User: Fold HIT zinc finger from Halorubrum vacuolatum.
Amino acid sequence: MSVTGICHVCESAAARHTCELCGQAVCRDHWRSTTGVCLACARGTGGEM
Ligand SMILES: [Zn+2]
Ligand SMILES: [Zn+2]
Assistant:
């Protein structure tokens, strides 16, 4: 199995998603499936929690 990368938020979990805003790889816990962006971007844009 190949791991594409490490989550750029927690830097410990395997990244399974890519933020549509910053393009960074993020893990499931730090990716908002509702918006398709990472937690950092979700906060910055004032999007829904
Ligand atoms: Zn993470
Ligand atoms: Zn992002």
Notes: The mean pLDDT is 86. Residues 17 and 45 are 19 Å apart (CA to CA). The chain has one domain: 1-49. The radius of gyration is 10 Å.
